[in-house]
Amino acid sequence: xxxxxxxxxxxxxxxxxxxxxxxxxxxxxxxxxxxxxxxxxxxxxxxxxxxxxxxxxxxxxxxxxxxxxxxxxxxxxxxxxxxxxxxxxxxxxxxxxxxxxxxxxxxxxxxxxxxxxxxxxxxxxxxxxxxxxxxxxxxxxxxxxxxxxxxxxxxxxxxxxxxxxxxxxxxxxxxxxx
Length: 178
What we know:
Low-confidence stretches: none
Structural class: alpha/beta
CATH class: Alpha Beta
């Protein structure tokens, strides 16, 4: 499950739990992105984003962090990461993405190779139609986004209901997003 995780929030964790349950996964890897070509770079640096992920994932042995996409040598392409993981793990892989990203999959770098390397689990989003060929991961919609968390921090508003307590404390302590 990739993303900027800037910061990781409760919807990310709910998505991982839903995928574990629905797909009977052994583990969910959280993969923070480096400097993706398709969106603005993260506000917090990779070190802070990994630290927040570590805090959010404590106590769940089925979660792990893979920070390879933060390395300067990373290509930033999902297909390259999947090829590396496939070679290292030698097991069936699932790519967990939102319906909005799934709708754009054909515009990704080597999308057919992405489909060959991993099964795709899709989290439904309101207003995005899905074809029957994908594995939809059901979960209750949560109105949380990292951009809203950052905006609330910048305005001095509470975020305790949006992120794990340890992450909220880290954001305050490190003065992120102010």
